[in-house]
Specification:
Elements (H helix, E strand, L loop, with lengths): L21 H16 L4 H17 L4 H14 L1 H10 L4 E5 L2 E4 H25 L4 H10 L4 H30 L8 H31 L16 H23 L1
């Protein structure tokens, strides 16, 4: 979906999701997540998943990237999804010795998995292409506390630097013959690695703080300007609100 129209002699107007104001995308993703969390019917959740996938396709988001993110999150909750049918009382569906999987627990696990899939897909479609600077600026203009916005911006900027520094330290250890075998020596080496990484992080933080103060930093980071609200933002917001209400109505009727 796109919002700003592009017209040529040979093609009709079309919409681009990237033309939306970042604040519109943040608010739309939040509204969709809140609506999806309130859904209980698997049919309504399947409808929401189909809509989220359509939104991701319209936003030209990579389905392979979406699959990797879903695999990471669902894999993290795999134990919970397996235990829910075994720990939720109800009508036994499968029994193996003293263990019995209830149909209510299986339905609860399916509902949870669908909720997670819909929320991740919607957020990925709407916010996946926003860089941290634009996202932080949008959150700041929406009234999020300034310190949280600054924390987001600093983490997004310096997490890559710390990973690079950790990789350099690990490569230096391997160059000196470190193999990471199980044992007390390896544990001591990993402890020294963590301590050295912390020391270097503190040293870099002090240098960055001094550099920022030399450039007149007063405790607040300037936020980048956005294009402002437009007609497309209003139309997209109304469409998202209508879709959320439609899903809630479908869930009540199911």
């Amino acid at each position: 979906m796109s919002i700003t129209t592009v017209t040529t002699d040979s093609e009709s107007p079309r919409f681009r999701l990237e033309a939306l104001d970042p604040r519109t995308r943040v608010l739309s993703a939040t509204a969709l997540v809140i609506a999806v969390v309130a859904l209980n019917s698997p049919a309504a959740l399947c409808l929401a998943l189909a809509g989220a996938l359509a939104l991701a396709a319209a936003a030209h988001r990579s389905l392979a990237g979406l699959g990797r993110r879903l695999l990471h999150i669902e894999g993290f909750l795999l134990v919970l999804l397996v235990l829910l049918p075994l720990t939720t009382p109800g009508t036994p569906l499968i029994a193996v010795g003293p263990l019995a999987a209830s149909s209510e627990g299986l339905m609860l696990a399916l509902t949870l998995a669908l909720r997670i899939a819909v929320c991740v897909t919607a957020v990925f479609a709407l916010l996946g292409s926003l860089d941290p600077v634009r996202l932080g600026a949008a959150l700041g203009r929406l009234g999020l506390p300034a310190r949280l916005v600054q924390l987001l911006l600093f983490v997004s900027r310096y997490s890559t630097i710390f990973r690079t520094e950790a990789r350099r330290l690990v490569e230096a250890m391997r160059a000196r013959g470190f193999t990471g075998r199980p044992g007390l020596h390896s544990l001591r080496s990993y402890g020294n690695l963590a301590g050295m990484l912390l020391v270097r992080a503190l040293e870099r933080a002090e240098r960055v703080d001094a550099a920022m103060r030399c450039r007149g930093f007063s405790g607040r980071l300037p936020l980048s300007e956005s294009g402002g609200w437009g007609r497309g933002d209003a139309l997209f917001g109304a469409a998202v609100a209508g879709a959320a209400l439609l899903l809630l109505a479908a869930d009540r009727l199911a």
